[in-house]
Design brief:
Elements: H1 4-7, H2 20-29, H3 41-54, E1 59-63, H4 66-77, E2 82-87, H5 91-94, H6 99-104, E3 108-112, H7 121-127, E4 138-145, H8 156-168, E5 172-177, H9 180-187, H10 191-194, E6 202-206, E7 216-220, H11 229-235, H12 244-253, H13 258-278, E8 284-285, E9 293-297, H14 300-308, E10 325-327, H15 334-350
Parallel strand pairs: 2-3, 2-4, 4-5, 5-6
Antiparallel strand pairs: 1-7, 6-7, 8-9, 9-10
């Protein structure tokens, strides 16, 4: 089969290239000299741009990875003796090599289970304990992921409800927004509505999965929480000497609806893929497809048959028993989606 490489690109949206607008911005920033360590015009302007994007003044700290954004955000919100409440499938709990624990100085992650990747107010309340007990790590932070690791999306009222509960218990609220744009498109909501208007204190704003090279940011909606964060940012090696190249990416990304167009396409390709899988006998969707990730149950013999055709199916992305995952991106092609569906359908018929 001549197009195996393109079909295998559904393993992750991390395999996608950077979009033209971002590349043009990097090239434009690569002209002349600029003040270093985040004092350049691009980084200064980015904070102004994102304040407009979120419809409120924000403090912005660019970083180069989602792990850095999450771990550093949590380090600002959580003392070393604190607890971070998160979903059991959250990236901070399963895929960040204990970076949150490291950067917080030893905070304890408390995982919460659910069938849809979301944390409910009731589930959060049931695990909050030990406040003011010197023998217990202290409840400090709630971290939710939007969109969730299983491709589902918190509705605005769900974010508001769980944030309200967290605040009632004195917790700060962090959002891991690695696929922030995909969730916004799914909800047809504004960035403000999905964050500070719903109770989010700090956001890890993702861009890398949706058209950037390596650009994320920690965004503070509550300036009182910034405190010593500039020092944490520097200590973690995320205060880049040539920060203009990261900031220019993010500025281009949130300007002229680039983020929206990219995410709309990725979500549309996922919807097409999901609908196609659902029509193949013997293939079942594991979770509703609400963003750009599609999880399906595929018989083992079909997976083996796909491997024989050169198609490697990503398994165990969430844990060892997780179903196969297919992820679409801003540059996924309709022809590749349809070809993948045709190959899977053929593998099912041939088993």
């Amino acid at each position: 089969m001549s197009k195996n490489i393109s079909i295998n690109n559904f393993a992750s949206d991390n395999v996608s290239c950077a979009c033209p607008e971002v590349m043009d911005a990097v090239v434009a920033a690569n002209s002349g000299i600029a003040v270093s360590y985040g004092q350049d015009v691009h980084t200064i302007k980015l904070e102004e741009t994102l304040s407009g994007f979120f419809e409120t003044p924000v403090k912005v700290f660019p970083v180069v990875s989602g792990t850095a954004a999450n771990a550093l955000a949590l380090s600002a919100l959580t003392p070393s003796y604190g607890k971070v409440f998160c979903h059991e499938m959250s990236h901070i709990n399963t895929d960040e090599c204990a970076a949150p624990e490291f950067f917080t100085g030893g905070a304890k992650l408390i995982s919460i289970a659910s069938d849809d990747g979301k944390i409910s107010p009731q589930a959060l309340t049931s695990v909050i304990r030990g406040k003011n007990n010197v023998h217990s790590a202290q409840p400090a932070t709630l971290s939710i992921t939007q969109s969730c690791e299983v491709g589902t999306v918190y509705q605005l009222d769900e974010i508001a409800a769980v944030s309200e509960t967290a605040h009632e218990f004195g917790l700060n609220v962090h959002m891991d927004g690695a696929r922030f744009a995909n969730a916004l498109v799914s909800l047809n909501a504004s960035p403000a509505e999905m964050t500070w208007k719903s109770g989010i204190d700090v956001l890890s704003l993702g861009g890398t999965k949706n058209g950037c090279l390596a650009a994320e940011a920690v965004v503070f909606f509550n300036p009182e929480l910034v405190q010593a964060f500039p020092y944490l940012h520097k200590r973690a090696g995320q205060l880049l000497s040539k920060m203009r190249f990261v900031s220019a990416q993010l500025e281009a990304y949130v300007t002229n609806d680039v983020w929206r167009r990219n995410a709309q396409h990725a979500n549309a390709m996922a919807a097409r893929l999901s609908k196609g899988f659902a029509a193949i006998p013997g293939i079942e969707l594991e979770f509703p497809t609400q963003s750009n990730e599609v999880f399906v149950n595929i018989p083992r013999e079909v997976i083996d048959g796909l491997a024989a055709r050169g198609i490697q199916v990503t398994e165990g992305e969430l844990d060892e028993t997780a179903p196969p995952r297919f992820v679409t991106a801003w540059d996924s092609k309709i022809d590749d989606v349809d070809q993948l569906l045709a190959v899977v359908s053929d593998a099912v018929k041939s088993r």
